[in-house]
Design goal:
It is built from seven helices and no strands. The protein is elongated.
């Protein structure tokens, strides 16, 4: 009986799903514990303001100033993963999945879902990319 070698993309698949889950958890925490609670809003209006109001306001600004920033980062990194070749593909896919997880929770779900889908599709074909020898340009 012949043994089949394990696909080379399985560790990357585990890392990709881990990045997606961590992004979703960070987005969930940011949304339901830092952005939406009304008590935090009232606390930050009072004087003197606590030290954590500044970072909270920057998080809210990053989320709402450029609508869907996390989703667009996910989509851009996923497209870069499809357009690039070689060893740059895997980091692009991991960034796309982590940013997509954030975007799914932080108000940019449609674009983030597309980025996550493209990244997962590229991740499934990562074995072909890693099997190719590196190209060196003269």
């Amino acid at each position: 009986m012949t043994s089949h070698p394990a696909p080379r993309f399985l560790p990357w698949l585990a890392a990709g799903l881990g990045a997606l889950v961590l992004g979703c958890l960070a987005g969930w925490y940011g949304r339901y514990h830092l952005i939406e609670p009304e008590e935090l809003y009232r606390t930050c209006l009072a004087e003197p303001r606590p030290w954590w109001c500044g970072p909270r306001q920057r998080l809210i600004g990053a989320t709402f100033t450029v609508r869907g920033i996390y989703g667009w980062v996910s989509l851009g990194a996923a497209l870069a993963g499809w357009l690039l070749e070689g060893r740059l593909v895997a980091p692009c896919v991991l960034i796309a999945l982590a940013a997509g997880g954030l975007g799914l929770e932080l108000y940019s779900a449609p674009v983030a879902a597309l980025g996550v889908l493209l990244a997962l599709l590229r991740l499934s074909r990562l074995d072909e990319v890693l099997a190719q020898p590196p190209k060196f340009y003269p």
